[in-house]
Amino acid sequence: MATVVLLTLTGLGLGALYFLVASGLSLIFGLMDVLNFAHGALLSVGAYGAWWGATHGFGFVPAVVFGTAVGTAAAVLLELGVIRPLYRRPRAQVLATVGVGLAVPALLSAVWGSDARPFPGPRALAGTVGLLGAEIPVNRFVLIGAAVAVLAALRLFLGRTRHGLVVRAGVEDRAMVTALGIDVRRAFTLVFAIGGAAAALAGALAGLYFGSVDPGQGSSLLIFAFVVVVMGGMGSVTGAAVASVAVGVLQQFANYYTSAGLGDLSVVVLLAVLLLVRPQGRWLSGRPA
């Protein structure tokens, strides 16, 4: 029983990390039709921003806020400088974001080296909590709490705020919204900033989860984020949340009860089965939200 509880909660923690990465990716693609391969680079920027703040005495929470802010600023610059001129050129868009996704880890390696850097997490989050006979790392609950907060905030933004409604209307009929005197470009920049903030927050908390940061961290997590987005339905934040839980828990159980590394394979097999059964997608969510 204790083992099942431990694997379930650690799987939820891993799933929460996947959701933080995938939520921004799903939001940007679903609302803006931009397949952002530089999303992992934003995660790496947030991770190194939080690491830099933590090593310079910011404290954990201020360091996470700083890393998230740096990643958000990087997302805005990416949208203004790279994405916006290429909205009508999707192929060039993909190539440009792939280039940024490769350039940023290389730049981080050049500045701080390619070796992993230990992340100085607070002592309060380094211990464990006893639950039903299992000792659960405290940082897993931090990740789960952050993911729940982000999910609630994104649903509120999309369904209850003026900017969220403008973005959704702009996606459906950009010409009509522009004719009403609304600057859709600003709304799209806001969406990109929110997506980048979620990725940067994931990067900051990934340092806490893994205990270190490295330039390639964003690229490895981006792979699972794409799997989650495809499983949950393009543009569905709720679907991404459900898929993240499924992927994280499946990985943990597969890695424990089989051999190390088969957890990743099990996720790929699950995705392949779902693609064969329902190739049109949206297995876990019927509508975007």
Automatic annotation (TrEMBL):
Transmembrane segments: 6-27, 34-54, 60-82, 94-113, 141-158, 187-210, 222-249, 256-277
Subcellular compartments: Cell membrane
Record-given protein name: Branched-chain amino acid ABC transporter permease
Recorded superkingdom: Bacteria
Topology within the bilayer: Multi-pass membrane protein
Sequence similarity: Belongs to the binding-protein-dependent transport system permease family. LivHM subfamily.
Pfam families: BPD_transp_2
